[in-house]
Amino acid sequence: MKVTVCFGRTGIVVPCKDGQLRVRDLTQQALQRYRKAQEKVRASHHVSLSERVSCTNLP
Fold it and tell me: Which PANTHER family match (predicted)?
């Protein structure tokens, strides 16, 4: 079984196995997954911005 937890417009899918996961544990796992996803988004924005800067500095 899977549950989708929404943070604004972002949905995070959390597997809860056979339904024995407590709501508290489910929310903690969803929050961890959301934070990881946000870190990846920030990292990809950082890379794309640095690539643009280095490309504009070429002769």
Answer: PARTITIONING DEFECTIVE 3 HOMOLOG B, PARTITIONING DEFECTIVE 3 RELATED
- The mean pLDDT value of the chain amounts to 78
Tally of domains within the chain = 1
Phi, psi of 21 (to 5 degrees): -80, 130
Could you list the residue range(s) of the whole structural domain that residue 12 is in? Answer: 2-56
Cα dist from 4 to 17, 43, 54, 58, whole Å: 13, 24, 39, 45
CA distances from 20 to 26, 31, 41, 43, 48 (A): 10, 19, 31, 35, 42
